[in-house]
Structures are given as C-alpha cells and as structure tokens.
Amino acid sequence: MALETNEIQEKLVATFGSDVFQFNQEKDIFSFEVAADKITAVILFLKNDPVLRFHFLTDLCGVHYPDNEETRQFAVVYHLHNWYENKRIKIKAFISGNNPEIKTVSNIFLSSNWMEREAYDFFGINFIGHPQLKRILNMDEMVSFPMRKEFPMEDSGRTDKDDRFFGRTTANC
C-alpha cells in the first residue's frame, strides 16, 4: 500500500503533537513546520520509522525572512526522500534573527555536514553540535554573511554593468 500524506501527518501529530504544524501539500511535496528545538527528534523519527522510511536527505538550506517577527527571521529547510515509495517531504524550522542557531542533523545524515556548513557560511546559522562548523566557500576572514537580505547584491558604484541585461530596469524604456 502506498504511503499517503495523511498517514505521515497522523504519525507525526501522534508522536509530536503541536510541535509539528502547518501541514500543506505543494504539488508533489508534502510540507510542514516543526518547532526548532524538536528538529533532530522529528528527522530521526522520519528516518527510523518502519513505515515512513525517509532515509535520504536531499537538501538542507537556509532562508532569510527579514520582515518576519524576530523569532522567525531565519528558516532551515530540510528535504527528505523515501525511495521505497518515491515520496518527498519538506520540513521548515524557523529560528531567531538575533541568535540563529539550531541543532545539527549531521549525526543522523552524514551528507548534511557540508550543507550545514554552507548555510552557516552564507546565512550565519549556527548548527549546534556540528563537528567542524566553518566557512566552506567564502574566505575565513569574511565577517558578513552574503545571503542575508541586508548584504548588498553588488557594488552600487560599478559602471561596467548595465542592469537592463540582467532583467532589472530602473526606468521604462
């Protein structure tokens, strides 16, 4: 019998109660939010449950929402895949803008090691318990986090680029 989204939701709610919420079907991906302090327990449950079997972490990334309230300014997004049933899910955990940190899942999925380092490098999200959390693509000396919305896209003084060629126009032509 195929794994249905209502079965995933029922198992999660029965185990974690109100710590999992905002269930939604977005095209072929079932998504939900989880309280940030429960993320490792939820992911471990999804991986080890004999029916759910989400054994593959497809992606982990950060998102910056500067207009959200302070406690929801960053999100860590996890994409998991059940290869047996070809079912994919997306999990969002929102974290504080003042101190963006969340527990690592590198002890559950080894592949998350570099993904968490990338989220740290670009967003400044601290993954508590990560074995080697340091920059992975930017210079170690860099003090800012370039994927945060307050980081300028490019030098405003540049004259060698014409915004029209990049889909950005400043006036109607």
Summarize the structure.
With 173 residues, this protein is of the alpha/beta class. It has three helices and seven strands. The protein has a single domain, classed as 2-Layer Sandwich (Beta Polymerase, domain 2), CATH 3.30.460.
Descriptive labels:
173 residues, alpha/beta, two-stranded parallel sheet, 7 strands, 20% helix, globular
Helix content: 10-25%
Widest β-sheet, arrangement of strands: 1-2-5-4-3
Mean pLDDT: 90
Strand content: 25-35%
Rg on CA atoms, Å: 19 Å
CA distance, first residue to last residue: 58 Å
Model regions low in confidence, pLDDT < 50 over at least 5 residues: none
CATH superfamily: NADH:ubiquinone oxidoreductase Nqo5 subunit
CATH architecture: 2-Layer Sandwich
The number of domains is 1
Oligomer: single chain
Give the helix tally.
Answer: 3
CATH class: Alpha Beta
| Shape descriptor | globular
Subcellular location: Cell membrane
EC number: 7.1.1.-
GO molecular function: oxidoreductase activity
Subunit structure: NDH-1 is composed of 14 different subunits. Subunits NuoB, C, D, E, F, and G constitute the peripheral sector of the complex.
Structural notes for this entry:
This protein has 173 residues and is of the alpha/beta class. The protein has one domain: NADH:ubiquinone oxidoreductase Nqo5 subunit (Beta Polymerase, domain 2, 2-Layer Sandwich), CATH 3.30.460.80. The strands form two sheets. Strands 1-2-5-4-3 form a five-stranded mixed sheet. It starts with a helix and ends in a 45-residue tail after the last strand. The model has no long low-confidence stretch (mean pLDDT 90). Its main location: membrane.
